[in-house]
Amino acid sequence: MKVRLKTCVEVTVVSLSLRQLYSFVGVLLLFTTVAVTPHTPFFFVLALFCRSHHPSHTHQRLRYFRRVTIEAVERGAEATESSHRGVGETLISTAMVCLILLTGLPGAGKTSLALALKRLVDGATGSDGRIVLEAVVELDAFMPHDGNECCNTVKSAFSPKVWREACVAAREATRQALLRSMRCATDNNGSIRLVVLVDTLPYRSMRATYWKLCKSLATDSNGEGSGKCVRCGMGEWSDRLCCRPTPIAMLVVHLNTPLELCLERNERRRDTESYIPPYVIKGMNENFDCEVAVARLNILGAENSWVLAPRHTNTPWPVLQLKSGDNCASLSPEQLARELLTRIVAPDVARELEEQRATFAAACAHRIAEKKRCRVAAASNDNGCGDWLHQMDLHMRAVVRQYILELKAAGTLPVRAGECASKCRERYLARLRAVLVQRRQEQHGSNSFESYAREILAEFHEHLRTM
Protein backbone atom coordinates (compact mmCIF):
# COMPACT_ATOMS: atom_id res chain seq x y z
CA MET A 1 0.00 0.00 0.00
CA LYS A 2 2.79 2.38 0.87
CA VAL A 3 4.66 1.68 -2.35
CA ARG A 4 1.55 2.13 -4.40
CA LEU A 5 0.73 5.39 -2.65
CA LYS A 6 4.26 6.63 -3.13
CA THR A 7 4.12 5.81 -6.80
CA CYS A 8 0.89 7.71 -7.22
CA VAL A 9 2.33 10.73 -5.44
CA GLU A 10 5.42 10.69 -7.61
CA VAL A 11 3.35 10.51 -10.79
CA THR A 12 1.20 13.38 -9.57
CA VAL A 13 4.24 15.52 -8.87
CA VAL A 14 5.68 14.81 -12.30
CA SER A 15 2.36 15.64 -13.92
CA LEU A 16 2.09 18.87 -11.96
CA SER A 17 5.61 19.83 -12.92
CA LEU A 18 4.94 19.20 -16.61
CA ARG A 19 1.70 21.17 -16.35
CA GLN A 20 3.49 24.19 -14.95
CA LEU A 21 6.17 24.01 -17.63
CA TYR A 22 3.47 23.49 -20.23
CA SER A 23 1.58 26.61 -19.11
CA PHE A 24 4.73 28.72 -19.03
CA VAL A 25 5.70 27.73 -22.59
CA GLY A 26 2.14 28.35 -23.74
CA VAL A 27 2.08 31.89 -22.34
CA LEU A 28 5.49 32.60 -23.84
CA LEU A 29 4.35 31.29 -27.22
CA LEU A 30 1.21 33.40 -27.00
CA PHE A 31 3.12 36.66 -26.54
CA THR A 32 5.64 35.66 -29.22
CA THR A 33 2.88 34.86 -31.70
CA VAL A 34 1.04 38.13 -31.15
CA ALA A 35 4.20 40.24 -31.26
CA VAL A 36 5.98 38.62 -34.22
CA THR A 37 3.31 37.12 -36.45
CA PRO A 38 -0.01 38.85 -35.75
CA HIS A 39 -1.68 36.96 -38.60
CA THR A 40 -1.17 33.56 -36.92
CA PRO A 41 -4.19 32.25 -34.96
CA PHE A 42 -3.44 31.76 -31.29
CA PHE A 43 -6.61 29.96 -30.26
CA PHE A 44 -4.60 26.77 -29.86
CA VAL A 45 -2.74 28.42 -26.95
CA LEU A 46 -5.99 29.06 -25.11
CA ALA A 47 -6.97 25.46 -25.75
CA LEU A 48 -3.91 24.32 -23.81
CA PHE A 49 -5.36 25.71 -20.58
CA CYS A 50 -8.83 24.30 -21.21
CA ARG A 51 -7.70 20.67 -21.65
CA SER A 52 -7.81 18.12 -18.86
CA HIS A 53 -4.75 17.92 -16.58
CA HIS A 54 -5.22 14.26 -15.76
CA PRO A 55 -1.86 12.41 -15.75
CA SER A 56 -3.09 9.97 -18.40
CA HIS A 57 -3.38 12.85 -20.90
CA THR A 58 0.20 14.07 -20.46
CA HIS A 59 1.60 12.38 -23.55
CA GLN A 60 -1.43 13.41 -25.62
CA ARG A 61 -0.91 17.02 -24.59
CA LEU A 62 2.76 16.85 -25.52
CA ARG A 63 1.97 15.44 -28.98
CA TYR A 64 -0.73 18.07 -29.48
CA PHE A 65 1.64 20.82 -28.36
CA ARG A 66 4.29 19.67 -30.82
CA ARG A 67 1.85 19.56 -33.75
CA VAL A 68 0.28 22.96 -33.15
CA THR A 69 3.69 24.53 -32.58
CA ILE A 70 4.90 23.33 -35.97
CA GLU A 71 1.71 24.63 -37.59
CA ALA A 72 2.16 28.00 -35.86
CA VAL A 73 5.71 28.32 -37.13
CA GLU A 74 4.65 27.46 -40.69
CA ARG A 75 1.75 29.93 -40.62
CA GLY A 76 3.97 32.60 -39.17
CA ALA A 77 6.48 32.09 -41.97
CA GLU A 78 3.73 32.35 -44.57
CA ALA A 79 2.38 35.53 -42.96
CA THR A 80 5.84 37.07 -42.82
CA GLU A 81 6.46 36.24 -46.48
CA SER A 82 3.08 37.70 -47.41
CA SER A 83 3.85 40.91 -45.49
CA HIS A 84 7.14 41.26 -47.38
CA ARG A 85 5.43 40.68 -50.74
CA GLY A 86 2.70 43.19 -50.03
CA VAL A 87 -1.05 43.09 -50.28
CA GLY A 88 -2.29 41.06 -53.26
CA GLU A 89 1.18 39.92 -54.30
CA THR A 90 0.42 36.22 -54.14
CA LEU A 91 0.93 33.52 -56.70
CA ILE A 92 -1.99 32.18 -58.68
CA SER A 93 -3.69 29.45 -56.63
CA THR A 94 -6.25 28.26 -59.18
CA ALA A 95 -5.98 27.12 -62.76
CA MET A 96 -5.91 29.94 -65.29
CA VAL A 97 -5.88 30.28 -69.07
CA CYS A 98 -3.69 33.11 -70.32
CA LEU A 99 -3.45 34.51 -73.83
CA ILE A 100 -0.02 35.97 -74.56
CA LEU A 101 0.23 38.45 -77.41
CA LEU A 102 3.84 38.35 -78.59
CA THR A 103 4.21 41.66 -80.42
CA GLY A 104 7.05 43.62 -81.98
CA LEU A 105 8.53 44.81 -85.25
CA PRO A 106 9.42 42.36 -88.02
CA GLY A 107 12.79 40.92 -87.11
CA ALA A 108 12.33 41.57 -83.39
CA GLY A 109 12.67 37.87 -82.58
CA LYS A 110 9.03 36.95 -81.93
CA THR A 111 9.10 33.59 -83.67
CA SER A 112 12.43 32.60 -82.09
CA LEU A 113 11.11 33.46 -78.63
CA ALA A 114 7.88 31.53 -79.23
CA LEU A 115 9.79 28.43 -80.34
CA ALA A 116 12.09 28.72 -77.33
CA LEU A 117 9.04 28.94 -75.06
CA LYS A 118 7.61 25.82 -76.61
CA ARG A 119 10.84 23.87 -76.20
CA LEU A 120 11.24 25.04 -72.62
CA VAL A 121 7.67 24.23 -71.54
CA ASP A 122 7.57 20.91 -73.39
CA GLY A 123 10.76 19.96 -71.59
CA ALA A 124 9.02 20.65 -68.25
CA THR A 125 11.90 22.83 -67.09
CA GLY A 126 9.92 26.02 -66.62
CA SER A 127 8.34 26.88 -63.26
CA ASP A 128 8.22 23.24 -62.09
CA GLY A 129 5.67 22.23 -64.71
CA ARG A 130 3.02 24.71 -63.55
CA ILE A 131 2.95 26.30 -67.00
CA VAL A 132 1.43 24.41 -69.94
CA LEU A 133 1.78 25.73 -73.48
CA GLU A 134 -1.44 24.84 -75.27
CA ALA A 135 -0.68 26.30 -78.70
CA VAL A 136 1.46 28.78 -80.61
CA VAL A 137 -0.52 30.64 -83.28
CA GLU A 138 1.44 32.59 -85.91
CA LEU A 139 -0.15 34.97 -88.37
CA ASP A 140 2.38 34.03 -91.07
CA ALA A 141 1.13 30.45 -90.96
CA PHE A 142 -2.23 31.63 -92.35
CA MET A 143 -0.75 33.66 -95.19
CA PRO A 144 -0.72 31.99 -98.65
CA HIS A 145 2.58 30.44 -99.71
CA ASP A 146 4.25 30.10 -103.06
CA GLY A 147 3.41 26.41 -103.38
CA ASN A 148 7.00 25.24 -103.00
CA GLU A 149 7.06 22.43 -100.47
CA CYS A 150 10.72 23.07 -99.66
CA CYS A 151 10.15 26.71 -98.88
CA ASN A 152 7.76 27.90 -96.23
CA THR A 153 8.04 31.61 -96.90
CA VAL A 154 5.23 34.05 -97.41
CA LYS A 155 4.61 35.74 -100.71
CA SER A 156 6.23 39.13 -100.92
CA ALA A 157 3.29 40.68 -102.75
CA PHE A 158 1.10 42.21 -100.05
CA SER A 159 -2.67 42.10 -100.47
CA PRO A 160 -4.95 43.80 -97.90
CA LYS A 161 -7.72 41.31 -98.59
CA VAL A 162 -5.43 38.32 -98.05
CA TRP A 163 -4.03 39.90 -94.90
CA ARG A 164 -7.52 40.48 -93.46
CA GLU A 165 -8.49 36.88 -94.20
CA ALA A 166 -5.32 35.67 -92.48
CA CYS A 167 -6.11 37.83 -89.43
CA VAL A 168 -9.61 36.35 -89.22
CA ALA A 169 -8.21 32.82 -89.49
CA ALA A 170 -5.58 33.50 -86.82
CA ARG A 171 -8.20 34.96 -84.50
CA GLU A 172 -10.42 31.90 -84.94
CA ALA A 173 -7.47 29.57 -84.31
CA THR A 174 -6.67 31.52 -81.15
CA ARG A 175 -10.26 31.24 -80.02
CA GLN A 176 -10.31 27.48 -80.55
CA ALA A 177 -7.03 27.10 -78.65
CA LEU A 178 -8.44 29.10 -75.73
CA LEU A 179 -11.54 26.91 -75.69
CA ARG A 180 -9.41 23.77 -75.59
CA SER A 181 -7.44 25.23 -72.70
CA MET A 182 -10.63 26.05 -70.81
CA ARG A 183 -11.86 22.49 -71.26
CA CYS A 184 -8.59 21.01 -70.00
CA ALA A 185 -8.04 23.42 -67.11
CA THR A 186 -8.55 22.16 -63.57
CA ASP A 187 -9.05 24.14 -60.41
CA ASN A 188 -6.81 22.23 -58.02
CA ASN A 189 -3.22 22.55 -59.19
CA GLY A 190 -2.80 26.27 -59.86
CA SER A 191 -1.45 25.66 -63.36
CA ILE A 192 -1.37 28.28 -66.12
CA ARG A 193 -2.26 27.17 -69.64
CA LEU A 194 -0.74 29.51 -72.22
CA VAL A 195 -1.88 30.31 -75.75
CA VAL A 196 0.75 32.37 -77.57
CA LEU A 197 -0.16 34.52 -80.57
CA VAL A 198 2.79 35.71 -82.68
CA ASP A 199 1.80 38.84 -84.57
CA THR A 200 3.06 42.37 -85.04
CA LEU A 201 -0.14 44.03 -83.75
CA PRO A 202 1.21 47.59 -84.03
CA TYR A 203 -2.04 49.28 -82.94
CA ARG A 204 -3.77 49.15 -79.59
CA SER A 205 -7.10 48.54 -81.32
CA MET A 206 -5.74 45.26 -82.72
CA ARG A 207 -4.74 44.11 -79.26
CA ALA A 208 -8.10 45.24 -77.91
CA THR A 209 -9.78 42.81 -80.32
CA TYR A 210 -8.19 39.89 -78.51
CA TRP A 211 -9.02 41.45 -75.16
CA LYS A 212 -12.68 41.45 -76.19
CA LEU A 213 -12.29 37.83 -77.29
CA CYS A 214 -11.02 36.84 -73.84
CA LYS A 215 -13.82 38.77 -72.19
CA SER A 216 -16.47 37.11 -74.36
CA LEU A 217 -15.07 33.67 -73.53
CA ALA A 218 -15.01 34.53 -69.83
CA THR A 219 -18.56 35.89 -69.75
CA ASP A 220 -20.08 33.37 -72.16
CA SER A 221 -19.72 29.65 -71.57
CA ASN A 222 -18.25 28.77 -74.95
CA GLY A 223 -18.19 32.04 -76.85
CA GLU A 224 -21.08 31.01 -79.07
CA GLY A 225 -23.96 32.29 -76.99
CA SER A 226 -25.34 28.82 -76.24
CA GLY A 227 -24.90 29.19 -72.49
CA LYS A 228 -23.44 25.69 -72.15
CA CYS A 229 -20.42 24.60 -70.17
CA VAL A 230 -17.22 24.19 -72.19
CA ARG A 231 -16.35 20.99 -70.29
CA CYS A 232 -19.54 18.95 -70.05
CA GLY A 233 -21.65 20.82 -72.64
CA MET A 234 -24.63 21.09 -70.32
CA GLY A 235 -26.31 23.84 -68.37
CA GLU A 236 -25.03 27.10 -66.96
CA TRP A 237 -21.67 27.50 -65.29
CA SER A 238 -23.22 28.00 -61.88
CA ASP A 239 -25.27 24.79 -61.97
CA ARG A 240 -22.56 22.26 -61.12
CA LEU A 241 -19.08 22.19 -59.67
CA CYS A 242 -17.47 21.22 -62.98
CA CYS A 243 -19.23 24.11 -64.73
CA ARG A 244 -17.56 26.89 -62.79
CA PRO A 245 -15.95 29.46 -65.10
CA THR A 246 -12.25 29.02 -65.77
CA PRO A 247 -10.26 32.21 -65.11
CA ILE A 248 -8.93 33.68 -68.34
CA ALA A 249 -6.61 36.63 -68.81
CA MET A 250 -4.47 38.34 -71.44
CA LEU A 251 -0.85 39.44 -71.25
CA VAL A 252 1.01 41.48 -73.87
CA VAL A 253 4.71 40.68 -74.26
CA HIS A 254 6.29 43.42 -76.35
CA LEU A 255 9.72 42.84 -77.86
CA ASN A 256 11.07 46.38 -77.96
CA THR A 257 14.04 45.38 -80.08
CA PRO A 258 16.02 48.35 -81.48
CA LEU A 259 15.15 49.34 -85.02
CA GLU A 260 18.73 48.90 -86.19
CA LEU A 261 18.80 45.28 -85.03
CA CYS A 262 15.45 44.57 -86.71
CA LEU A 263 16.74 46.04 -89.99
CA GLU A 264 19.93 44.01 -89.69
CA ARG A 265 18.00 40.79 -89.21
CA ASN A 266 15.72 41.71 -92.08
CA GLU A 267 18.72 42.11 -94.38
CA ARG A 268 19.61 38.49 -93.73
CA ARG A 269 16.27 37.58 -95.31
CA ARG A 270 16.93 39.47 -98.53
CA ASP A 271 17.24 36.26 -100.53
CA THR A 272 13.95 34.97 -99.17
CA GLU A 273 10.38 35.91 -99.96
CA SER A 274 9.81 36.94 -96.34
CA TYR A 275 12.02 39.97 -96.84
CA ILE A 276 10.25 43.24 -96.00
CA PRO A 277 11.35 46.56 -97.50
CA PRO A 278 13.18 48.65 -94.89
CA TYR A 279 10.88 51.65 -95.33
CA VAL A 280 7.93 49.47 -94.26
CA ILE A 281 9.66 48.51 -91.01
CA LYS A 282 10.66 52.13 -90.37
CA GLY A 283 7.08 53.26 -90.92
CA MET A 284 5.77 50.62 -88.54
CA ASN A 285 8.32 51.72 -85.94
CA GLU A 286 7.17 55.33 -86.17
CA ASN A 287 3.49 54.40 -85.88
CA PHE A 288 3.82 51.55 -83.38
CA ASP A 289 1.31 52.21 -80.64
CA CYS A 290 3.23 51.27 -77.50
CA GLU A 291 1.54 51.36 -74.11
CA VAL A 292 4.54 53.04 -72.46
CA ALA A 293 7.98 54.19 -73.47
CA VAL A 294 10.99 52.25 -72.26
CA ALA A 295 12.41 55.32 -70.51
CA ARG A 296 9.33 55.49 -68.25
CA LEU A 297 9.62 51.91 -67.04
CA ASN A 298 10.13 51.46 -63.33
CA ILE A 299 13.16 49.15 -63.43
CA LEU A 300 13.76 47.39 -60.12
CA GLY A 301 16.46 44.78 -59.75
CA ALA A 302 18.68 43.25 -62.37
CA GLU A 303 17.84 39.58 -62.03
CA ASN A 304 15.26 39.53 -64.84
CA SER A 305 15.25 41.17 -68.27
CA TRP A 306 11.47 41.63 -68.35
CA VAL A 307 9.74 44.48 -66.53
CA LEU A 308 6.07 45.23 -66.01
CA ALA A 309 5.00 48.47 -67.67
CA PRO A 310 2.84 50.92 -65.70
CA ARG A 311 -0.87 50.52 -66.27
CA HIS A 312 -2.20 52.74 -69.05
CA THR A 313 -5.70 54.19 -68.85
CA ASN A 314 -6.64 52.71 -72.23
CA THR A 315 -5.03 49.31 -71.69
CA PRO A 316 -6.71 47.07 -69.11
CA TRP A 317 -4.17 44.31 -69.81
CA PRO A 318 -0.64 44.07 -68.35
CA VAL A 319 2.39 44.61 -70.60
CA LEU A 320 5.84 43.07 -70.23
CA GLN A 321 8.75 44.73 -71.99
CA LEU A 322 12.49 44.30 -72.00
CA LYS A 323 14.50 46.56 -69.74
CA SER A 324 16.78 47.26 -72.64
CA GLY A 325 16.45 46.39 -76.29
CA ASP A 326 20.09 45.34 -76.26
CA ASN A 327 19.05 42.22 -74.33
CA CYS A 328 17.73 40.80 -77.60
CA ALA A 329 21.27 40.73 -78.94
CA SER A 330 23.11 39.81 -75.75
CA LEU A 331 20.76 37.06 -74.54
CA SER A 332 19.71 33.93 -76.38
CA PRO A 333 16.03 33.18 -77.05
CA GLU A 334 16.22 30.32 -74.54
CA GLN A 335 17.42 32.68 -71.81
CA LEU A 336 14.73 35.23 -72.63
CA ALA A 337 12.09 32.48 -72.62
CA ARG A 338 13.29 31.16 -69.26
CA GLU A 339 13.18 34.61 -67.69
CA LEU A 340 9.77 35.26 -69.26
CA LEU A 341 8.29 32.13 -67.67
CA THR A 342 9.71 33.19 -64.33
CA ARG A 343 8.24 36.66 -64.78
CA ILE A 344 4.77 35.38 -65.64
CA VAL A 345 4.38 33.69 -62.24
CA ALA A 346 5.97 36.61 -60.36
CA PRO A 347 3.76 38.25 -57.69
CA ASP A 348 3.21 41.56 -59.51
CA VAL A 349 2.21 39.95 -62.82
CA ALA A 350 0.10 37.36 -60.99
CA ARG A 351 -1.70 40.19 -59.22
CA GLU A 352 -2.49 41.85 -62.57
CA LEU A 353 -3.84 38.57 -63.95
CA GLU A 354 -5.95 38.04 -60.85
CA GLU A 355 -7.45 41.51 -61.27
CA GLN A 356 -8.41 40.60 -64.81
CA ARG A 357 -9.98 37.40 -63.53
CA ALA A 358 -12.02 39.36 -61.00
CA THR A 359 -13.17 41.80 -63.70
CA PHE A 360 -14.25 39.01 -66.02
CA ALA A 361 -15.93 37.16 -63.15
CA ALA A 362 -17.95 40.26 -62.28
CA ALA A 363 -19.00 40.62 -65.92
CA CYS A 364 -19.96 36.94 -65.99
CA ALA A 365 -22.06 37.32 -62.84
CA HIS A 366 -23.75 40.38 -64.32
CA ARG A 367 -24.51 38.48 -67.53
CA ILE A 368 -26.02 35.55 -65.63
CA ALA A 369 -28.11 37.94 -63.54
CA GLU A 370 -29.38 39.67 -66.68
CA LYS A 371 -30.32 36.31 -68.22
CA LYS A 372 -32.25 35.35 -65.11
CA ARG A 373 -33.97 38.72 -65.05
CA CYS A 374 -35.01 38.34 -68.69
CA ARG A 375 -36.33 34.85 -68.04
CA VAL A 376 -38.33 36.08 -65.07
CA ALA A 377 -39.70 38.98 -67.11
CA ALA A 378 -40.66 36.66 -69.96
CA ALA A 379 -42.35 34.25 -67.56
CA SER A 380 -44.35 37.06 -65.95
CA ASN A 381 -45.56 38.29 -69.31
CA ASP A 382 -49.28 37.71 -69.89
CA ASN A 383 -49.60 34.76 -72.27
CA GLY A 384 -46.36 35.78 -73.95
CA CYS A 385 -48.07 38.63 -75.83
CA GLY A 386 -45.18 40.97 -75.14
CA ASP A 387 -43.02 38.95 -77.50
CA TRP A 388 -45.44 39.49 -80.35
CA LEU A 389 -44.32 43.06 -80.96
CA HIS A 390 -40.71 42.01 -81.26
CA GLN A 391 -41.55 39.18 -83.64
CA MET A 392 -43.76 41.40 -85.77
CA ASP A 393 -41.08 44.07 -85.92
CA LEU A 394 -38.50 41.55 -87.14
CA HIS A 395 -40.91 40.20 -89.73
CA MET A 396 -41.77 43.63 -91.11
CA ARG A 397 -38.09 44.60 -91.27
CA ALA A 398 -37.42 41.48 -93.32
CA VAL A 399 -40.31 42.40 -95.64
CA VAL A 400 -38.90 45.90 -96.14
CA ARG A 401 -35.45 44.51 -96.85
CA GLN A 402 -36.81 42.09 -99.46
CA TYR A 403 -38.87 44.89 -100.99
CA ILE A 404 -35.77 47.08 -101.44
CA LEU A 405 -33.75 44.21 -102.91
CA GLU A 406 -36.46 43.42 -105.47
CA LEU A 407 -36.64 47.05 -106.58
CA LYS A 408 -32.85 47.20 -106.91
CA ALA A 409 -32.78 44.04 -108.99
CA ALA A 410 -35.47 45.40 -111.28
CA GLY A 411 -33.76 48.78 -111.55
CA THR A 412 -36.91 50.62 -110.45
CA LEU A 413 -35.81 51.75 -107.00
CA PRO A 414 -37.27 55.25 -106.47
CA VAL A 415 -35.55 57.97 -104.47
CA ARG A 416 -35.96 57.69 -100.69
CA ALA A 417 -37.80 54.39 -101.06
CA GLY A 418 -36.10 52.95 -97.99
CA GLU A 419 -37.08 55.91 -95.83
CA CYS A 420 -40.72 55.70 -96.96
CA ALA A 421 -40.84 51.95 -96.32
CA SER A 422 -39.38 52.40 -92.83
CA LYS A 423 -41.96 55.04 -91.94
CA CYS A 424 -44.70 52.74 -93.20
CA ARG A 425 -43.37 49.95 -91.01
CA GLU A 426 -43.34 52.23 -87.96
CA ARG A 427 -46.98 53.24 -88.52
CA TYR A 428 -48.20 49.65 -88.73
CA LEU A 429 -46.10 48.67 -85.74
CA ALA A 430 -47.67 51.50 -83.74
CA ARG A 431 -51.12 50.17 -84.66
CA LEU A 432 -50.14 46.72 -83.44
CA ARG A 433 -48.85 48.17 -80.17
CA ALA A 434 -52.07 50.10 -79.58
CA VAL A 435 -54.19 47.02 -80.25
CA LEU A 436 -52.02 44.96 -77.90
CA VAL A 437 -52.53 47.43 -75.04
CA GLN A 438 -56.27 47.49 -75.68
CA ARG A 439 -56.58 43.70 -75.77
CA ARG A 440 -54.63 43.39 -72.51
CA GLN A 441 -56.96 45.82 -70.80
CA GLU A 442 -59.98 43.92 -72.08
CA GLN A 443 -58.42 40.57 -70.99
CA HIS A 444 -58.53 39.09 -74.46
CA GLY A 445 -56.39 36.04 -75.23
CA SER A 446 -53.38 35.88 -77.51
CA ASN A 447 -55.33 34.04 -80.22
CA SER A 448 -57.45 37.08 -81.01
CA PHE A 449 -54.36 39.27 -81.16
CA GLU A 450 -52.64 36.79 -83.47
CA SER A 451 -55.50 36.87 -85.94
CA TYR A 452 -55.52 40.66 -85.90
CA ALA A 453 -51.75 40.76 -86.40
CA ARG A 454 -52.09 38.63 -89.53
CA GLU A 455 -54.57 41.11 -90.94
CA ILE A 456 -52.19 43.99 -90.21
CA LEU A 457 -49.31 42.18 -91.89
CA ALA A 458 -51.38 41.45 -95.00
CA GLU A 459 -52.37 45.12 -95.18
CA PHE A 460 -48.72 46.09 -94.75
CA HIS A 461 -47.71 43.87 -97.69
CA GLU A 462 -50.37 45.42 -99.92
CA HIS A 463 -49.33 48.92 -98.94
CA LEU A 464 -45.71 48.25 -99.93
CA ARG A 465 -46.74 46.97 -103.36
CA THR A 466 -48.69 50.18 -104.08
CA MET A 467 -45.93 52.56 -103.00
UniProtKB/TrEMBL annotation:
Asked if the Swiss-Prot or TrEMBL record annotates the protein with the keyword Transmembrane helix, the reply is: yes
What the entry lists under InterPro entries is as follows: P-loop_NTPase, Ser-tRNA(Sec)_kinase
Superkingdom field: Eukaryota
Protein name from the UniProt record = Uncharacterized protein
Instruction: Give the molecular function GO annotations.
Output: kinase activity; tRNA binding
Q: Which organism is it from?
A: Trypanosoma vivax (strain Y486)
Organism phylogeny: Eukaryota, Discoba, Euglenozoa, Kinetoplastea, Metakinetoplastina
Q: Which regions span the lipid bilayer?
A: 21-49
Q: Does the keyword Transmembrane helix apply?
A: yes
Keyword tags: Membrane, Transmembrane, Transmembrane helix
